[in-house]
Amino acid sequence: MPHYHNPLDASQLPAWQQLQQQRLNMQDFRMTEAFAADAQRFQRFSLNHDGMLLDFSKNLLDDTTLDLLMQLAEQSQLQPAIQALFNGEPVNASEQRPALHTALRRPIGDSLVVDGEDLIPLIHDVLNNMTELVNRIHNGLWRGYSEKPITDIVNIGIGGSFLGPQLVSEALLPFAQQGVHCHFLANIDGSEFHELSNSLNAETTLFIVSSKSFSTLETLKNAQAARSWYLAQGGSEASIHRHFIAVSSNIEAAVEFGIAAENILPIWDWVGGRYSLWSAIGLPIALYIGMSNFKELLAGAWSMDQHFQNAPFAENMPVILAMLGIWYSDFWQAQSHAILPYDHYLRNFTQHLQQLDMESNGKHVRQDGSALSYPSGSVIWGGVGCNGQHAYHQLLHQGTLLVPADFIVPVVSHNQIADHHQWLYANCLSQSQALMQGKSLEQAAQELRDKGLPEDEVARLAPHKAIPGNRPSNTLVLERICPRRLGALIALYEHKVFVQSVVWGTNAFDQWGVELGKVLGEDVYQRLTGQASLNGADASTQGLINFFRNRHRG
Ligand code: F6P
In angstroms, rounded to a whole number, what is the distance separating the alpha carbons of residues 325 and 320? Predict the structure, then answer.
């Protein structure tokens, strides 16, 4: 039986127990001292892959710890688990299916036979269909009901059918093709629909209903609203196929909704929603940046896939990031992890990672259903720098919580304005430096004395100005934000998440917790609209329903 059906209890592995001792040994470890003692620390604790540099030297890390973390990865059977992932074994045990987002990145001519079928030709057939569709729209051959070419694409989808495509489209704005605008409609909040539809012309708008399941409430309600809006604007039923296409694995439901069968691009149940931007769910990306750039995105991810499969663990970027994350959450009680991209175009990266990481690793049992006795996924949060420096970085510097951070920054800017990029890059580096160095009480006191303050004022102010330091971070430097590097960056975090799930023994590819909210949402809606009695709901929910109903009465 494959190991993931019967995962190991990580806390019983020898390396885990040695790491517990190592944590105690590291109590007085100071990164600044480690740098002073080792001129090669940066070289030894940094990695390069395909135009990407990972500096992990500013961590609570020494050789023994790194070695133990790599042993933990080995003892967790990571290598066979990676092979199982890439080979299409059912790594998603609760749903008994593989998670084959990596297959979507494989080059043509490759082969991956799962259950007797070679998936690569299927995948490339869909890529060809996407190419044809993109070309027709870009060349003005796809016409709306009044024979005008399409100018605006609206992607209707939520979760993985929104966050990945939105992140990539916005991140690759400098690669956008002329003439096609992409919009995203995700939330059921009518205000989002209202604001967007006000800016659109129905004659030249194409809606992509993007839903793997074609059963997601928010998406279906928005798709219905879009259809009503399109008809109210003068569009005809007969021309609906010119304005609505779908991406789904539930072809039947999409057809029933009214999408023409030839307008439905398939995805497969072996692609998880939060891993689906590489599939036809990425159609808005392809429409925005063109198909050759979309293929570059896939190529970048595939290059990271190969690195992940082949590099020894100690030189493997996803493995290093994952094991450092485990070091902090399971041995240092860190409960959150900050993602801090210093690039305007990556401003939605944290949001995408929130779904990728928290929906994947927010689990409390192992694949076999046994309870975890140690923490699993962290809270992922953060946002674009420098903005965060003037908001939440204060807590990173002087708060009582340990928050490891990933800084992400390109060397080359798409928009060199005076010396802004030098300043941006300098700020990124100086933040990780400040987190590491901090400022001792003595230093703070001396600075105050140097300013001529009396001793009682020095004693009063110095504790406020002292900064603990020794706070860990990784820095990822990309050559520049381009399709290939972005593909590699996203794939890097996908694999980081997978490695952690293997060590914890959890399933990174299901999300049963989300389902309860969906079921209760339906129940509350029935009560709110008077279709079901309030009896049986808790008093808080009843009170809140009544408040709403009183306002809407009469
Ligand atoms: O919110 C749960 C979820 O199932 C996500 O995993 C998924 O990305 C999202 O809903 C959207 O699902 P679908 O593409 O099926 O509409």
Answer: 9
